[in-house]
Write a structure and sequence with these properties.
The chain is of the alpha/beta class. About 50% of the residues lie in helices and about 10% in strands. The protein contains 15 helices and 10 strands. This is Purine catabolism regulatory protein.
Length: about 400
Amino acid sequence: MSILLKDVINLESFKNMRLVGGRSGLDKTVNWIYVAECFENPLESLNWIYGGEIVFITGRSIKGDINLLSRLIEGFNEKNIAGLIINIGPYIKQIPKKIIDLVNSLNLPLFELPWEIRITEATKDIYTAIAMKRLQEDSSVNFFHQLLFGDEKLGGNLIDKAAYFGYNLSGEYRVYIIDIDNFQKYIKDNNIDDESIIFEVKTKLKKIIRDTLYNHSIEVPIVDKNDSVIFIYKLNKNKIKVLDEALDKIKKLVSNQIGGMTVSIGVGDCYNDLNMIKDSLKEAQLALKKITIDGLKDCILEYKNIGVYQMLFSLEDTRNLNKYYEDKLRPIIEYDNINNSKLIETLEVYLDENCNNTSTSERLFLHRNSLRYRINKIEELLDVDLRKLNQCIDIKLAIDAKKIISNKEN
């Protein structure tokens, strides 16, 4: 529901402006307005850009230096502004072809504003349009936030209420959560201790997600929660491939544009009653939890594919899980503690690799004879035969139970 530049240019204030370049960028999202005339060195303006602004330039501090103007425009583009408006008059008499060619190459919309039109007049209804759109979005976000996280059920026809905010959620839907992988570790690794920088990182992430979904013609209600962006998707068999492409694009853009950050995506099951939306949300959260437990990142997991974890996650009392783990694996736990060995680790990898000796040896950097010795020792201590499927399943359940216990303790 964000306001786009192509919507803004239909406002009354734009009737006196002329688009001179960058037409292909009119789908960009507009967040605010910035007048770049506050510094003697105009390049200092770049430090005050957060992305999504329409930037006004009179040229007073540029003093006819076209090379400086080019550098400024390139800097604004790197900051992902929505568009640029240059005041034509005593400082910039006309926009040179070099500048028009530059904005065309950057897909950055550039407008001319006649000198006799005051910037305050030109910006007045732009401010109003942005403010009204934000008010509308705030109401929409509040409704969907209450729908997802509210303690009480919302009254009335929820489908009609969703439609009031422009979203058709009749039929089947599911919840998607896009979550920053281990955000605290990312902050530590990048030596980030400034709250404003953390806010800027999260803002950039949200903008990537919103813009990418919009560019793939996916209109969905979006809610922010801590380090996550949540959206509700009405199932459309004709568009599911487009959604998959958009999600892959989001993961790549985040990694490329936000210094090594990765995101993972949890997907809940499908429902056709909005009163069940919290169930889909919970399932998406559990899918993300499974990703964390497995030590994975930069991936997408649907709740329906988490296997036996559906059952294990439902057991809130970790004492039962811990008892099951110790009853099944106590002999090799004690053996590892006494001998400083790695039988538990070996067993876990062996089962993950479907009891394949070759791939297990490669993952553990072990000679096959050494692996065979360890497997024989495990079978001896546990009195099991790892060639029997039912015994492997029991042991795998115990190992997975321990992962859940460790995750809850952390």
